[in-house]
Amino acid sequence: MLERLLVGETISLDLVNTEWIDRGEMVDFLAADGAAELWFREYGFDPATEDVEALRAARAAIRSLLESPGPEADARMNDVLSHGYESTRVSDGRPGTTSATDPGWGAAWRAARAFTELLATHPDRIRQCAHPDCVLYFYDTSRNGSRRWHSMETCGARTKSARHYRRSVSEEKAKQH
């Protein structure tokens, strides 16, 4: 079983992060044996009633909005969102919201809906990792909103190490001239 690189984000960003690049090749976690079922269970969905193709459609729609927003990306997201709805009702004087989805679309719709909530509340906190070879996204929860990498231990350290190496090489060349 593949191990995901970044977990613990919101359901929508966790879904987008089921694709990453490893040694120059795109990896699809959802394509690994048993991985989609594990993802469904992690978010409280019954794998027997969910459709992995719907989940992939939601992932593509969210990624499309992140990477190339516009009418086509909007249409992809709206297609996913059309598979469910929310309803507000009052019971015992208190409002409550329930959702209903087409069969197989529960997880996909919930991830897409959660992404629209992020866009509505804090779109400036949704970030792609600053490492040039990383395709992972994160929600910046730092106090000043300055987080740059999905992980300081991996991409942050690689970026800083590469910068140090370039600086050392430049200084060495300058000494030789």
TrEMBL record:
Zinc finger CGNR domain span: 125-167
Superkingdom of the organism of origin: Bacteria
Pfam family, one: zf-CGNR
Regions that span the bilayer: none
InterPro entries listed in its UniProt record: ABATE, ABATE_dom_sf, Znf_CGNR
The protein, known as: Putative RNA-binding Zn ribbon-like protein
Source organism phylogeny: Bacteria, Bacillati, Actinomycetota, Actinomycetes, Micrococcales
